[in-house]
Amino acid sequence: MVFPDIPSRQPWIPSFLYHTHTHTPTPPSSVETKKTPTPEKSPSFMIPAPSDNRIAMFSPQYYAACTAGGIFSCGLTHMAVTPLDLVKCNMQINPAKYKSIGSGFGVLLREQGVKGFFRGWVPTLLGYSAQGACKFGFYEFFKKYYSDIAGTENAAKYKTFIFLAGSASAEVIADIALCPFEAVKVRVQTQPGFAKGLSDGLPKFIRAEGTSGLYKGLVPLWGRQIPYTMMKFSTFENIVEAIYKNAIPLPKDQCSKKLQLGVSFAGGYIAGVLCAIVSHPADNLVSFLNNAKGATVGDAVNKLGIMGLCTRGLPLRIVMIGTLTGAQWGIYDAFKVFVGLPTTGGSPAPATK
Fold it and tell me: Has keyword Transmembrane (predicted)?
C-alpha cells in the first residue's frame, strides 16, 4: 500500500479521532458587524486535525494517537489470523486429532465447515483491541517515563533496558484487559458446542467457574506475553535502528514514508519470529489451563512434557506471529503517519526533561 506525502491527511482519519479548527475569513466591509461571544472551550484530549496542528510529542494527544493505533494494529491483525489461531489451539489441546497444520484445517472443514474457521472471532477482536490499546499506549508512556528517570546520557547508553522495562510494564496492564476475553476465546475454539461466541460464552463460563475463573490463566498469560512483548519491542527498536544505520544510505527523516513503513514491517516480522520462540511454552500452558476445568501447571507439564511445551504447534505459531507482528508494526506506524507523527524507532531515545 502506498502512503503518499500529501499536505492534508484529514479525510483519511476517522472524525472522532480529531477536532478541527475552521476559520472563515471575514470579508472586507465598511459596516461593522456585531460579534457574538463564543463559549470558552474545555480542554480536549482528542487528536487535532493534522492539517491544522501538529501533535506535540509526549502530549496527551500523542498518547491518545498511540493508543488508537494500538487498537487497530492488534485487534484487526489478531482477528484476521483467527483460523490459524484456532488450528494452533486445537493442535496444542488435542494433538492426536489435530496432528499437523494441514490435517488440522481438514478436520475443522469436515466437522464445522468454512464458518468454523472463524469461531471465536468476536472475543479475539475485542480482547486484542483492549490489549493493543494498553500495550502500545502505555509502552510509549513508560518509555518516556523511564528515560526521564535515567537522564539523557543514561537513557541513550542503556536504551535497550529502557525498551525492555517500558514494554514489560505496559504488558502487565495489557494482559489484565485481555485475560477474560482470552479465556472465553480458548474455550469456544477448543470445545465444540460450548458456545457460539462471546455473547453466550462469557455468561456460560462465569456460571461454570465464577468471575475469578476468567483470570485463572492470568499468570501463565503474563508468562507468555511479557517475554513476548519485551522481545517484540526491544528487538524491533534495535533492528529498525540497525537497518537505518547499516542498510539505508539516508537518514531516517530523509526517507520516504513508504520506505519507513517497509522498514517497520520488516523489523516487526523478524522480531515476531523471535517472540514466538521465546513465548511458546507459556502459550501452550495458557491453552491447556483455559481448556480444562481445574487444571494446573503441573498437569500440563505431566501431560505435554517439557519438549511438548516448547515445540507443540511451534512452526504454525512462528508463521502466525511473524506475520502478525510485522503487520502490527506496519499498521501502527501507518496510523502514526496519518495523524502526523513519525514512525517508531531508528532515532535516539526520547529526550528527557
Answer: yes
Question: Distance between CA 93 and CA 112 in Å, rounded?
Answer: 18
**Does residue 14 have a pLDDT over 60?**
no
For every residue of 127-143, DSSP letters joined together read HHHHHHHHHHHHHHHHH
Element (H, E) at 297: helix 297-311
Q: Which residue has the cell 517475554?
A: 227
Return the pLDDT at 5. Answer: 46
In the chain, the amino acid numbered 99 is K
Give the angle subtended at the CA of 131 by the CAs of 15 and 199, to the nearest 5°. 85
In this structure, what DSSP letter does residue 113 have?
Answer: T
Residue 10 and residue 50 in contact, taking contact as beta carbons nearer than 8 Å: yes
Question: Which ranges constitute the DSSP H helices of 151-192?
Answer: 152-157, 159-190
For helices 257-291 and 218-246, what crossing angle results, to 10°? Answer: 160
C-alpha cell of residue 262: 517497509
- Domains of the chain in sequence order: 53-338 (1.50.40.10)
Q: Are 180 and 217 in contact (CB under 8 A)?
A: no
Q: Do the Cβ atoms of 328 and 66 come closer than 8 Å?
A: no
pLDDT per position as a tens digit, 316-333: 888 888 888 999 999 999
With CA atoms as reference, report the closest residue to 309 among 299, 321, 301: 301
pTM above 0.85, yes or no: no
Closest among 106, 228, 140 to 178, alpha carbons compared: 228
Q: Find the length of the chain.
A: 353
Q: Strands 47-48 and 18-19, how do they pair?
A: parallel
pLDDT digits (tens, 9 = 90+) for 245-258: 999 988 898 999 99
Separate counts of helices (H) and strands (E) for the chain = 11, 2
| Gap between the Cα atoms of 325 and 323, Å rounded | 6
Q: What local confidence, expressed as pLDDT, does residue 250 receive?
A: 86
Q: What is the per-residue pLDDT across 112-154, written as a single tens digit (0 to 9) for each? A: 888 888 888 999 999 999 999 999 999 999 999 999 999 999 9
CB atoms within 10 A of CB 194: 17
State how far the Cα of 212 lies from the Cα of 353, in Å rounded to an integer. Answer: 42
